[in-house]
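Check out a protein:
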Amino acid sequence: MSQLNTSNPNHFIFATDTLEFHVLGGLSTFGLDRLRVTLKVNRLDDEFHALRHNIDLYNANGVEKFVRKLAEFLEIGTSIIRRALQELISKLEHFRLEVLDQVENEEAEEYLLSKKERRSAMDFLKSENLLEKTNKYIGKSGVIGEENNRLLMYLIFTSRKMENPLHCISFGSSGSGKTHLQSSVAELIPQEDRLSLTSLSSNSFYYFKKDELKHKLVLIEDLDGADDVLYPLRELQTKKRITKSVVQKGIGGQGKTKNLVVEGPVSVGGCTTKESIYEDNSNRSFLLYIDESEEQDERIMDYQRKVSAGKVNIEDELWAEELLQNVQRLLKPVRVINPYAEHLVLPKSVFKPRRTNAHYLQFIEAITFYHQCQRHKQYDIHTGEEYIETTIEDIKYANELLKPILLRKSDNLNGATRNYFERLKIYLKKKGDTIFTNREMRKEFRMAESTMRRYQLKLESEGYIKRRKDIQSDSFVYEIIEQDEFGELENSINKALGICLDKLIKTS
C-alpha cells in the first residue's frame, strides 16, 4: 500500500501506481464530521497537467462528481480514481486520529534540573532565614523596592502547588508599576507553571483541556479588560473546577450535549486601578497596594538610570531569576498541618472575618509549605499520608507579612482614599496645621478636581474630616478631626497579634 508523506505539514503527498495527490494547506483536525481539503491531482507521468479542487471528501455526491471530472481531465478510468481516493481518505483519517490522540495525551514537558542546578536549589531551600534570603534574591532579580509586596506575591504564587492556593489583586493608579511588579515576580515562577492572559472571551476558560490549568498560576494583566471571565475565575478559585454544557453535531446532524470540565486548583493574580468594581473577586484574594511614594519613584528612576549607564549586571539578575525558578521546581505537593490553628485569633476590627481568617490560615500553611525541605516528614497513622507541621516561626513570619493586609482589611476607607488621607496628614503635620482647602491640595498633590472631590466626600461621609466656613476668607475649608486614628488601628492589630503569639510561645 502506498504511504502518505506528511513531512511537510502544509503539503501532504500520496501516490499510487498511476496518480499523485497533493493535499495543499495540510489537514484541519477541527470537526471529525468533515474532511475538507484542497487537492492537486496529476498523473505520475505528467505532473504539470494537474487538476486543483477544494472538496469535502465526506460528501459522497461531491466526491462522485469530482471522480467524473478528474477522469475526463486526466483521461483515466473512474474505477482507478475511486480506488485511489478511498485509499487517500483512509490514510488521512488515520493521520488525523493520530494527531488528535497525540494532542490529547501530550503534557507540558517537565524541566529536568542538572545535578548542579538541583544542588544549588536544595542548598537554597535549606538555608537559614529562608524568607529573608528569598526576598533578597527577588531584589537581585531586578524587582526594585516593594519589599513586603514582592515577598507576599512570591509566596502567594508558590501556593499554586497546594490544594488550597491563594490569590492576589494588585491595586494602583495608572503607571504606578502594578503590572510590572506582577510580571516581574511571575518571572520567578517556572514558565511551564504559569499562564499569562491579555485578551479573553467569555468562554475562554471552558475550552482548556481538563487538567491544563491544574496547579497553574493564571495571570491577568488588566482585570478591566477581563469582565467576561470574572465569573469562571471566581468559580475556579472557590470550587476548583468549572463546567459548561455545549451542543455539538452528532451522527446524522443531530445535536449532542457535551460537558466541558476544567479542573483546578489555580492561583490567580490580577491588576486593576478600580478597587470597588471587583469586590466579589477581591473577597477571594489578598489585596496588594502598590507603593506610590516619592521614595519608591526615586528608587525606580535610579535603577533605570543605572541600566541606561550599563552599571546593572543583567547576567546576575538572570542567575537569581533562574535559581528561584529552580527552587520552585524542587517544591513538591505535601500536606501541611497547623497544630496551633485553634489558638489563632484575628483582631476584632477586621472586616469579613470568616474569609479573612481562612486566608490567614492558608498563608501560614503556604509559609510552612515553602519551608518543606527544613521540616521533619511525618506520617498519618491511619492513612499513611505524609505531612509536615507548622512552627511558631511560620506564624511569626506570617503575622509580620500580613500586618499591612490586615490593616487594610480593618480600614473603613478604600486603598486610594487612605493613601490620599495619609499623604494629607503628613503634609499638614509638616505645615503645623489641621486646616486645608481643595485648591491648596490640588496644587500640592497635582490631582484632578474630580478625584479630589471623590476623596473628600468619602472622608467627610466617614467622619474623618469636616467642612466649615472660614470667616476671614469667606470660603469653605476642611479640618481633620482624627489625626492618629490609623496609627491607633495599626497598634491595636499589632497588639492583638502579639498577644496571640505570646500565648502560643508560653503554652508550647
Notes: Residues 78-105 form the longest helix (28 residues). The CA atoms of residues 128 and 374 lie 9 Å apart. The chain is about 45% helix and 20% strand. The chain has three domains: 4-105, 135-331, 415-486.
